[in-house]
Amino acid sequence: MTSPKACCKDDFLFILNLEVLMRRSLPLLLVCLLFSPLSAHAKFLLRDVGLIGLMSHDVFAWDHKREVNTENGRLDLSTIFDYDGGSRWSQGGNPKNAENAPVYSITMTLVDHYRGRLFRGDDPKEARRSTVLLFHDMLKECYERLLAEPLPAQALRDFPNNTEQGALRGLHDVLPGQVKLYGRVLRRKLVLTNFLTAKTRLNKRELDQPIKDFDGDYDIEYKQIQIPLTGVTLNLMEIDRKFIEKFTPYKQAEMLADLARVGRGEIPLHQVYFIHHVKELFAKGLCSEENEYMPARSCI
Asked: Which of 16, 87, 188, 198 lies 20 to 30 Å from 1, alpha-carbon distance?
C-alpha cells in the first residue's frame, strides 16, 4: 500500500513537471497565436481560377444587348459540347474558354478525357457523361476545400439568376494578374490577361501554385486589358461594378471590403455576407432533372 507521504511526493513532482512544460510551451503557443490568423482558410490555387471560370461559363453566357443569360444553367459542360451545335468541342467549345490560361487548361484537360473515352469505344453520350462526372469531382474538391463544407447534397430546381452571377463576379478580386511558369525555356511568368498567350497549357505544378489572397482590389492587369488589333482597353473591375450594381442588391465596394477581411484572416470565406448566393449557384447548377449527361441528384 502506497504511503500518504509517497502520494504527496508524486503529486508534487507531477505539478512541478507540468509547470516546467507550460513554461517551455507558452512562448511557442504565443508565437502561433500572434502569427496565425484566427480565421485561417484554404489558399486559392491557380487551378481553382480555371475551374470556377469554366463553371461560370457553363451556367452563364451573357447576351449584352438583350441582357439575358443564354446558357442552360446546368453543370453539364454545354459550354464545351453544345456551343455552336457542338462543332467546336475539340477546341474547347465557347471561345471564352480559351481567353485565359487557367480556364483553357482545365477545359482542354476535360476535352482530352472525352477524346480518350471515345478512343476506348464509348459512344459520345457515354463519353460526355464520364467527362461531366470528372468535372463534378473537380468542382467538389475545390468547393469543399475553399468553403470548408460539403458540396450541397440537395440540388435546387430553379435556374441561376443575375444576383448569383453578380456574386460570382465579386470574387474576381482573387484573380492574379501574373503567375509563375515552371519548366519552360525562357519563360518564367505569364500575364493572364495577355490574349496572345491565353492558350498556354499549364502543367500540374503551375496549376497547383497558390495565388494571392483577397485584398479588396483587382490586380492592375485586369484594369488595363488590351484587346489586340482594336485599340480597346477594358477595365474588368468597372465592368463588374456596373453589372453588380445594376442586377444585384449589392455594392461592389462593400463586397470587396468583406473579401479583404478574408485576406486579412478576420473571417473565413464561408462567412462572407454574399457567399450564400455562390452556394445556391452550385446547388442550382447540380440539378440533373431532364438532363441526360449529369449524374442523378434529387432537386427541390
From this structure: 16
